[in-house]
Amino acid sequence: MRVAGVMSGTSLDGIDVAIVDFAGGVEHRELVASYGVAYPRAVREALLGVSNTATHTAEISRLNFVLGELYAEAVIEACEKNDIALHSVELIGCHGQTIFHEGSPVEYLGRKVASTLQIGEAAVIAERTQIPVISNFRERDMAAGGQGAPLVPYVDYLLFRHEEHPRVALNIGGIANLTWIPAAAKPEDLVAFDTGPGNMVIDALVVRMTDGEYDFDQEGEIARGGSINFELLDKLLRDPYYEAAPPKSAGREQYGAAFVQSLVSTGTSLQDLIATATELTVRSIEAGVAKFQAAQLIISGGGAHNRFMRQRLARVLDPIEVTISSEHGVDVDSKEAIAFAVLAYESYHRKTANLPSATGARRAVILGKLTP
User: How far apart are CA 96 and CA 118, in angstroms?
Assistant: First the structure.
């Protein structure tokens, strides 16, 4: 079965597509092609305008359908650029774009509810491609008492489990999340959680510093040239989230516009804030990794391209070997798209794919909703 996984993360940088062939189950898979396309600037700004902020329902509704069109176009382009017949793709797994995620229940209208919202209309994707779509992966886990995140650990287990070496798989997107994979682990042995900010805060500060000319710190060069505000860093690291026991999840709700504005209001120069935010990502990852014994850290996601951040991680985590997923045969930019191809394949075959040890759900459940 050939499945296209579609992923767009909290960094809001664009859409990743991975086309994966499954020959008799998830253990026998092959990445056929990968493709990435940036969001148009206007779309990115519109998404920021509806993400955990006051907005109008019309904006959310319109964006939901626009994203459906963009996701469909990305799948079609991925096939065209890799000489793959679109009709050979039998299923699409689409994560959608998260605009709100609250994994822990809060009081609301007399009830305690956790909630999440991903947009990107699956009906549009299915209609444009004439391929069935599985979407909305997080809700069923949350209905079963989980945080709806992280969902990628199931795939980390398939990709990176080792008989002898305990490993930590780390994805640095807008948010950073890790999966602890003991040597010779069984799925129920894994522990996974969001460590805190990944690139999200850094990216927002770079946009401010460059007046929108750039939206990320290429190879960490801005941070490398800045000075850390250690008083501010120490204050940020006192957030009880970093020492809280998993399951736990984070998002734009914690590290979005209000958080960035609180940093800017300190009067620290933007370059020094970028250096400080980079170190916050490094130190919060260090706090997460320190909970486990590991021989190797395997980094994927956009943060894998940040050379300065990788160097800082190697220094603070020594003697753990710091590697990137490409060294293990998994493209750093494709891992999460591959993950949603795998999750869609499992859902289509009525198999559970959440890990209660990671999300806190009461039981393993079948994820996603099918749009035929």
Answer: 5
Among candidate residues 26, 25, 6, the one with its CA nearest the CA of residue 16: 6
- Residue-wise pLDDT for 213-252, tens only, equals 999 999 999 999 999 999 999 999 999 999 999 989 898 8
Q: How far is CA 218 from the centre of its chain?
A: 19
Where residue 211 falls (left for φ over 0; alpha for ψ -120 to 50; beta otherwise) is left
**pLDDT digit string, tens, across residues 252-291:** 889 999 999 999 999 999 999 999 999 999 999 999 999 9
Backbone CA torsion sign across 118, 121, 122, 128: negative
Predicted model pTM = 0.91
Nearest Cα to 171, choosing from 191, 189, 190, 153?
A: 153
Residue 291 C-beta-side C-alpha neighbours within 13 Å:
20
* Residues counted in the chain: 372
Model pLDDT for residues 31-86, shown as the tens digit of each residue: 999 999 999 999 999 999 999 888 999 999 999 999 999 999 999 999 999 999 99
3-state secondary structure of 211: coil
At which residue do the structure tokens 């992280």 appear? 150
Collect all residues with Cβ–Cβ distance below 8 Å to 18 and sequence separation of at least 6: 4, 5, 7, 31, 33, 34, 334, 337, 338, 341
Among 249-253, 325-329, 368-372, the range scoring the smallest mean pLDDT is: 249-253
How far CA 20 is from CA of 5, 261, 282, 364, in Å, comes to: 8, 41, 32, 24
Quote the CA–CA distance of 132 and 154 in Å, as a whole number: 23
Percent of the chain with pLDDT over 70: 100
List Cα–Cα distances, 204 to 36, 92, 220, in angstroms: 21, 31, 14
Instruction: Kindly list the distances between the CA atom of residue 178 and the CA atoms of 168, 293, 297, 298, 363, in Å, as whole numbers in the listed order.
Output: 6, 13, 9, 9, 21
